[in-house]
Design a protein that fits this description.
With 322 residues, this protein is mainly α. Helices cover 45% and strands 2% of the residues. It is built from 15 helices and 2 strands. A two-stranded antiparallel ribbon has the order 1-2. The N and C termini lie far apart (49 Å).
């Protein structure tokens, strides 16, 4: 499936260079002069990270999503709690769930070695998400760059704005709409669940209490996810039962046969407005990949900090001292 994605990636990347993101003062060539080896440095570090743990590609894609949905794509999710500062890492959707912070730290260290004080953590997160997708067989695209890092974070927004795995379709459409993303963007971005894993606590209700699920699949997942709340909560299951660490369109085929791991996944194919699009993505991997790239660029353009609105953190985990 990976070769099919790459057949059209160069043309697609060129067609997206002047996307809506450019209107937000972001540009794929933002660092062309100030840090010409940026993308090579990020890619090399990501290759090492994926070789060490293939799952990390999915984790960093998720980290980017969780960053952008709270205050915009500003690296606020990377900030550690301190005595006087409460960040987003301890929010319900993030605590003991979002991972990959150490990889971002390593990328930042390597980038600082060649371009000190030039590249934001927010842009590093965006590039890492793209490269993680690509290295697992997904599409390659030109990432608009030029974001700055925030000096604030919002625990309350992280708890309220990130969609829950129990969300209904109407709730998902509303949540994404609040961020300027369409229902089509929602369905395309949900295809990120073609890679990675989820914890038992996120899908327990779906496999025990929902009717919109294949019974054999529910039984399979019940084998490692006990019914009792608090029992085996952190046990993992692949979001895509077929190709859990390959970025392809198999996720949508799973939905067609009621094998979505999360309730929110299966809501995309449950007699609602997105059924036809799920069927199209299942039959046409190139269409899915193209829409995924478009939606990723749109998501990466949510409220970026530019100009004098932010800073370039020296350490992605802490705000620069004044």
């Amino acid at each position: 499936m990976g070769s099919g994605f790459r057949a059209w990636q160069c043309l697609l990347a060129l067609s997206l260079l002047c996307s809506a993101a450019c209107g937000q003062q972001l540009s794929p060539t933002f660092y062309a002069t100030s840090c010409p080896t940026l993308e090579l440095t990020v890619r090399a570090t990501m290759i090492s990270a994926i070789q060490a743990e293939r799952r990390m590609g999915a984790s960093l894609l998720r980290l980017f999503f969780h960053d952008c949905f709270v205050q915009g794509c500003d690296a606020s999710i990377l900030l550690d709690d301190t005595g006087s500062f409460t960040g987003e890492k301890t929010a319900g959707p993030n605590a003991n769930s979002v991972r990959g912070y150490e990889v971002i730290d390593q990328i930042k260290t390597n980038v600082e070695a060649v371009c000190p004080g030039v590249v934001s953590c927010a842009d590093i997160v965006a590039l890492a998400a793209r490269d993680g997708t690509f290295l697992l067989g997904g599409p390659l695209w030109a990432v608009p760059l030029g974001r700055l890092d925030s000096t604030t974070a919002s625990l309350s927004q992280a708890n309220s704005d990130l969609p829950a795995p129990t969300s209904s379709l109407s709730s998902l459409i509303s949540s994404f709409g609040n961020k300027g993303l369409s229902a089509r963007d929602l369905t395309a971005l949900s295809g990120a669940h073609t890679i990675g894993f989820s914890q038992c606590k996120n899908f327990r209700d779906h496999i025990y209490n929902d009717t919109n699920i294949d019974s054999a699949f529910a039984t399979l997942r019940q084998g490692s996810c006990p019914a009792a709340q608090g029992s085996g909560d952190s046990n993992l299951a692949p979001l895509d039962v077929q190709t859990q660490l390959v970025f392809d369109n198999a996720y949508y085929g799973n939905l067609l046969v009621r094998r979505g791991l999360l309730h929110s996944d299966q809501e995309l194919f449950n007699g609602g407005s997105q059924d036809a699009l799920v069927q199209q993505y299942s039959a046409n991997p190139a269409l899915f990949a193209a829409d995924f790239v478009t939606a990723m660029i749109k998501m990466g353009s949510i409220s970026p900090l530019t100009g004098s609105a932010g800073q370039i953190r020296a350490n992605c985990r802490v705000v620069n001292s004044s």
